[in-house]
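DM from R.C. (forwarded with permission)

"hey, sorry to bug you on a friday — could you get me a structure for this? deadline for the figure draft is monday and I only need the backbone to look sensible"
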Amino acid sequence: MAPDQHVPATALGTTSRISLDGRRSERSVILADGSMHSLTLLHPGVYTLSSEVAETIRVLSGMAYYHAEGANDVQELHAGDSMVIPANQSYRLEVVEPLDYLLSS
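My reply, with the result:
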């Protein structure tokens, strides 16, 4: 995200949740419209993840490749991209550049 671009937030969690051996950091954020999200930073690497509920990813910065389990295609993700991950979906995320994104369910 360029320095002049902002996500309008009204509240930001003061505690980060660290996971994946320190390679992922998440904190809660409430946007100006009242919706709750997780602001997440994922360091470069290859991750196999899964969603229990449908989730929307809005990429703020970085670059990654998304590959859903059982699918043949790979989706490239960049700043400004959004995508929905279906409920109960396993997927592989290859993070090439640190990936900063909003996650909502």
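R.C.: lifesaver. The mean pLDDT is 85.
me: no worries. The radius of gyration is 13 Å.
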